[in-house]
Amino acid sequence: MKPRKIPMRMCVGCREMKEKKTLIRVVRSPEGEVSLDPTGKKSGRGAYVCRNADCLKRAIRQKQLERQLEVTLPPETAEALNAAMAALSGEETRANG
Fold first, then answer.
1. How many CA atoms within 13 Å lie on the side-chain side of 50?
2. CA end-to-end span of the chain, whole Å?
3. Of 28, 33, 59, 89, which one has the fewest beta carbons inside 10 Å?
4. Judging by beta carbons within 10 Å of its beta carbon (0-12, 13-18, 19+), is residue 95 exposed, middle or buried?
5. Whole-angstrom distance, CA of residue 43 vs CA of residue 88
6. Where does the chain show beta strands of DSSP type E?
7. Average pLDDT, stretch 1-23?
8. Interacting residues of 7 by C-beta distance below 8 A, sequence separation 6+
9. Which helix (H) or strand (E) holds 43?
10. CA angle, corner 88, sides to 87 and 92, nearest 5?
11. Do the Cβ atoms of 34 and 72 come closer than 8 Å?
12. Distance separating alpha carbons of residues 34 and 29, to the nearest angstrom
């Protein structure tokens, strides 16, 4: 049997190619709302970022997220994304610890 191909995506923060399942999707919904999509199933334009706050902050600071999602990120949206990432990181730490 042929081994299954592992889908790869580029993190918009650190610009490294990684396995899709190790990244988290940031999605812009058809209504223009930007949010984290831990399931990867929401409809809309998506960009991938590593599961750490540093990559997300870098992607926001360098305007990579804005470029990929074709949207202007207001500061409150950036803060909400950072808070959601911190909450997700906290959940994973508790689940693994």
1. 13
2. 36
3. 33
4. exposed
5. 20
6. 8-10, 17-19, 23-28, 34-37, 45-50
7. 93
8. 19, 20, 21
9. none
10. 120
11. no
12. 6
Tokens 């959601």 found at: 84
Give residue for tokens 């909450």. 87
What is this structure's pTM? 0.87
DSSP strand E in 39-93: where? 45-50
Distance CA 75, CA 16 (A): 25
Which amino acid type is present at position 91? Answer: E
Spans of all domains in the chain: 8-96
| pLDDT exceeds 80 at position 92 | no
AA identity, residue 32: G
Query: Any idea which architecture 8-96 has in CATH?
Result: 2-Layer Sandwich (3.30)
Give the model confidence (pLDDT) of 41-91 as tens digits.
Answer: 999 999 999 998 899 999 999 999 999 999 999 999 999 999 999 988 777
